[in-house]
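Researcher: Structure prediction, please.
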Amino acid sequence: MSKFSEYDEKEIEIFLDVYDQAQLDDQTQSLKKLITVQDRISIFKGIDPEELHAVIYDLKFIKFNFKDYIIEQNAQNTEIFYIIDGECQVFHDKHKVGVLQAGEIFGEAAAIFGTNRNASVVCSSKTATSFVRQPWLYSIKI
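Model: Predicted structure follows.
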C-alpha cells in the first residue's frame, strides 16, 4: 500500500469483495450489501442510496504497472479515474506538470466537457484505480 493512500487495505478489500459479489448477485442484493458497508468505506460515505445504485453498476477497476499510460494527451475517451493506491505523473506536451496520488480524481474535464484529453497520465508505481465512463455523470442528482 502506498504511503499516500488514505484508505487502508481492509477498506479496499471490503469494497472489492462487495464489488465482485455485485457482479454475481441479483442487483438488489448487491446494493443492499454495499449499503451495509458504505459508511466504512471513505469514498462512499454520505452518498445517497439511489446514487450509490448507479455507481456500483458503472464502476470498474483496473490495475496499472510502472510506466503504464492511463490517459494519453489528445485521446478521445470519457473515463473519470480515481486512484485507490499508487502514484502517477502528469505530462502536457511531454513536460511533467504534476503528480497524482491515492485519493485523487482525474480525467473529469474531458468527460464533462466532451473534449480531448489535455494531458497524459503515466504510472510512477503500480497503481490501482477505479473509473466510470461519462454517462454515469448524468445519473447524479445535483
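Model: The chain has two domains: 9-58, 60-139.
Researcher: Thanks, that helps.
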